[in-house]
Amino acid sequence: MARASEVLDVLAEVWRDLSPALPPGVPAVEAAEVRLEGGVPALAGEPLIGGPALVAGVREIGRRLQAIEGYGAAGAVSDAVARRSSTFDTELFAAAALGGMWDEMASLADGLELDAHALITLADYAARPALRAGALVVKPLVTASRWGRGTCPSCGAPPALSVRSGKEGDRTLFCPRCGTGWRYPWVRCPACGEDDHRRLGALHASGEGDFRRADVCDTCRSYVKSVAALDPPNADGVLRLDLDTAALDFAAIELGYHRDGVPDDRGGPRETGPVEHRR
Ligand SMILES: [Zn+2]
Ligand SMILES: [Zn+2]
To answer: Is 76 inside any structural domain?
Structure first.
């Protein structure tokens, strides 16, 4: 298996190269503001990337990832998508990738007789430059909004992790797909909204104190990792932190907690470490 950091290096490079110009007038800022007011992610339904551009992105990402050990199938799947792009609705494909509609994506994979996990992963990766560009446009709206949800105010994805920063130790959740950060209370589960502290706990990596931990919820059995940082991470930094804290994922999953979200970003084996369960 490939080193997971190698995958992130390749992705960071290809995302830089793919970095698309958003279509004119997209995202529609006024509509985005109305959505946020109504508790809907700012970028919901925005055509940030067209079907042909997304297919081209899938092709390029598959081509570059296939050289990495364990990613050989990426080339074949992305080839098949590009070769057969006249046989399915690429605009729906793009909308599903942007909106994280993975059930729809799995149906498409079935129709094309492709591996669903591989197609979802490639489509997710290919949509990210457009999501990041869209998130930058709506960032002032998101910052000014009173978003109270545990999912990304820009694109709707579940958070990759929490970052604790500042003197007050404020909690900011970060999105793995578009890089958006948003404030969220500590004593509340992002997945189900549970705010009874007796139902919320933390798994600590030994020797790290509160520096790195997984906040767990016994109501919905989900967890979110939490790290302390001086500066908020950028979009690539969120993925690095996620990778660097993989030991916490192992520990939480081993204890029967799950992580809501997007396809696996890390793609390879992770180092485990000793972790203790504390209340
Ligand atoms: Zn997002
Ligand atoms: Zn919960």
So the answer is: yes
Tell me which ligand sits closest to the C-alpha of residue 180: 1
Cα(135) to centroid of ligand 1, in Å? 7
Give the pTM.
0.91
Matching residue, tokens 């792009």: 85
Closest ligand to Cα 217 = 2
Q: Which of 263, 270, 27 is nearest to 137 (CA)?
A: 27
Q: Is residue 152 part of a domain?
A: no
Residue 201: nearest ligand to its CA? Answer: 2
Report the CATH number at residue 183.
3.90.1670.10
**Domain coverage including residue 228:** 161-278
What span, in angstroms and rounded, lies between the C-alpha atoms of 11 and 176? 13
Query: Considering the domain boundaries, does residue 117 fall inside one?
Result: yes
- Ligand closest to CA 130: 1
Q: Are 227 and 172 in contact (CB under 8 A)?
A: no
Between the CA of 126 and the centroid of ligand 2 the distance, in Å, is 30
Within-domain flag for 50: yes
Domain boundary among 119, 144, 169: 144
Number of H helices, E strands in the chain: 9, 7
Ligand 2: centre distance to CA 33 (Å): 28
**Shared-domain flag, residues 15 and 122:** yes
Q: What is the pLDDT of residues 54-106, one digit of tens each?
A: 999 999 999 999 989 888 889 999 999 999 999 999 999 999 999 999 999 99
**Within this chain, do residues 120 and 181 fall inside the same structural domain, yes or no?**
no
Largest Cα span, the chain: 55
Ligand number, closest to the Cα atom of 131: 1
What does the pLDDT look like over 132-155, one tens digit per residue? 999 999 999 999 999 999 999 999
Neighbours of ion ligand 1 (CB under 5 A): 152, 154-155, 157, 175, 177-178, 180
